[in-house]
Write a structure and sequence with these properties.
Layout (H helix, E strand, L loop, with lengths): L1 H8 L7 H18 L6 H24 L12 H35 L1 H34 L10 H10 L1 H24 L3 H29 L4
Helix pairs in contact: 1-8, 2-3, 2-8, 3-4, 3-8, 4-5, 5-6, 7-8
Length: 227
Amino acid sequence: MEALERSFRYPLSGEGWGPKFAFGGILYILGSLLGFLPWVGWICSILIAFLPLGYAYKVFRDHLKGAEGPLPAWAAWGELFTMGLFAFLLSLGYWIIPGLIYWLGKVLWDNGGFAAFLGVLFIILGLGVGLVAFFFLPMAMAFYVRQNESFSAAYRWSGIVEKIWVVQREYFIGWLASLIFLIVLFFVRNYFLYIGWVIHAFGVFYLSLAAAHFFGCLCRKSMEVNR
């Protein structure tokens, strides 16, 4: 699929892509290192992650609005942080329910006995709902951008489903490719010490940029139909 191939080439192409890409990966590594700090480490890790997340969101927003071009410059740090914060909050709105279901399943599993059986069911349900949330999130983000960054727009289910249906085949392929990429990164991080951790950090940033480019262009195509 030409569009998907172009999106996977996007983070590693264009003028000055090397330093821009490397800087984002380093930020993810820095955030992971800060996570080892006692008490406040996880907070510092999340705050640092807002910057590369905001950067990926900017790529998504630019391509959704038709502003084709190479990777943007790392500038306007306050704006990147704010965009990353709101993108995180929007994503959290989609992930919180499957996350809670999965957490409940883990708690039941740890109790053993019949509770463990129920725990397995809740874990499977949480993963299933999480995959559904992961599927709808890109188009929900597009609605958020197009409606002047209104959170309520990201939960207009009927409109989101309608626009996904317009580009269903390409959308599903992009979602599936992103999911497989994430699974591979998960195994690399867990089965290769040190180097796997670095590959995971850069891989997550790479995927965020490739997905931002792909879904930004695809959602723009969908929203231009029947306008």
